[in-house]
Amino acid sequence: MAPAEGLADAALPIGDRALGARASAPAAACHAVLLGPRRRFPFPFRELPRTEAEIKARFGEKAEGLGRLPWLIQESYARLVVAMKAGDNEKILAESDVLGGLVVDMHSALNLTDNFDGQKTGQHGLWVRLVEKLPQAMGKALKVSPDAANYLDNPKEYVFSMMLGTYVWLDNTLYLEELARRGKSGYGDPYFEDLARKVGPILRERLARAAEDAGSYWYTAWTVAGRPDLK
Description:
The protein is an all-alpha fold. 54% of the residues lie in helices and 2% in strands. A two-stranded antiparallel sheet has the order 1-2. It starts with a strand and ends in a 7-residue tail after the last helix.
């Protein structure tokens, strides 16, 4: 990947939106990709088809239950390229936001498991605690410093690189959250203070990578479209 020119400060406009917080847990799970040792595609996902058509051919109607997040990212990126080539500023802004949100979702390990709300590990309500309440509890301490955007040589395949880089955080996230709950009677300030110490570094890293990757998709789409003058 080549560093983007003039995009050293490129970052996803996260604001108060943390990983996956733009959707509720059930809604996000509908477009997530359910992976792991108990799924059909165990880590490191070498058997995961690289096209949605192949998944549908292999699994038929059951393919719908596997999630669409990789394909949604690919489809959004393609629409952004078309919008940039057409110079349609309204569509460029709208699709950039959609693509950025999908890339953010790909950087949340909870979006890559059917245990997205901790319901299978006795951690019920995990989604809200991690993607909504933890960022609020951290406040200004959740400072994100993403690296520069890069040109993606293969935007379609890069989706799966993001997936791999995200999934490795799942077990640590579940374990550290369980540690933060130990010895506490509920989910009050002591819990979130401990959660911030334990899971906060992972959240910060994931947000930084999400911002970098979103910027990289935007920059790549702009480059592929011929670097149009955007005003």
